[in-house]
Design a protein that fits this description.
165 residues; alpha+beta; two-stranded antiparallel ribbon; 38% strand; globular
Length: 165
């Protein structure tokens, strides 16, 4: 009987650990919580979008995201303003980032707000893109899954950051 109980406990711990090890798992864990705003977009929706118009960045500048969006499989977004829940989500996101050895592309710190962008993939493609934003008692998590051209993604990020200056 002890062996069965130990096996069930071990399986539960493995399942609980795996639950928060990817963007979908993190999304599924928190998306039904009333303190969390959640958005999921599937690959079918990305295909329905067709040619995505340029995204306006302000002051007459725009960015073409079509090359990136057409290759996305899913997008998960969580936004929370409950301090305790934010800390729990952050912990799960940090475990995910460490487990899959994400590379931090960028970090911005400004007046208490911290924005970080992470990717994983190889020299030519990005298979996952994560953006986290923390500000006081708020936390936002965005995860994009797909096969995105690293060059296209870096070009879009560079253009967006130039507009922020």
């Amino acid at each position: 009987m002890k062996r069965i109980a130990a096996f069930v406990a071990a399986m539960f711990l493995l399942t609980a650990g795996a639950w928060a090890q990817d963007g979908k798992g993190i999304y599924n864990k928190y998306s039904d919580n009333e303190e969390v705003s959640a958005v999921y977009i599937s690959s079918s929706m990305f295909k329905l979008m067709g040619k995505v118009p340029n995204m306006e960045l302000g002051e007459g500048s725009s960015m073409d995201l079509g090359a990136i969006i057409k290759n996305l499989n899913s997008m998960y977004l969580l936004d929370c303003e409950d301090p305790d829940l934010c800390n729990e989500i952050k912990a799960d996101v940090n475990k995910f980032i460490k487990r899959y050895d994400f590379e931090m592309l960028m970090e911005i710190k400004d007046k208490g707000e911290v924005v970080r962008i992470y990717t994983t993939g190889n020299e030519k493609t990005v298979t996952q893109f994560i953006l986290t934003a923390s500000e006081y008692d708020a936390f936002t998590f965005i995860c994009l899954d797909g096969t995105m051209s690293r060059a296209d993604l870096e070009k879009a990020i560079a253009k967006a950051t130039q507009q922020m200056e």
